[in-house]
Predict the 3D structure of the following.
Amino acid sequence: MEGWHGWDAYAPVYDWENVRTVGHRDIPFWRRQVVACGGPVLELGCGTGRVLLPMARTGEPVVGLDRSTNMLGLARRRLRRARGTDSARLVRGDIRSLPFASDRPFSLVMAPYGVLQSLLRN
C-alpha cells in the first residue's frame, strides 16, 4: 500500500493531533520563507490548511495541493471561515505529478510536516 492511503480517515483528528505535537511552532518559519520569496507559493500536502491559511494571510498567492478529499474539505471550510485568505486556492492532486503548467513557476514550494514521507513509490 502506498503512503498516502489513510489520509482521508486521518483527516478528522489531524488538527487535534497537530495542536498537541507541532502546534504552531513552524508557522513563523514558513511565513518568513513566503515573505522572502514572494508568490506564488505551492504547498505540497496542504492537508487541512494548518500552514496554508496563515501563509495566505501574508497576501501572497498560495496554492495548496493535496490528494485527500477529506483533508481538502476541512481546508475549504477553514478558508471560508477565515479572513484575509482570498489569495489561497486548493487543488486536489498527486505531488508526484503536479497538475500545473510548467510555464507558470512557483517562487516557493513548501513541503511542511513530513509530507514527503508518504512517497513510498514513484
In short: The chain has a mean pLDDT of 84.
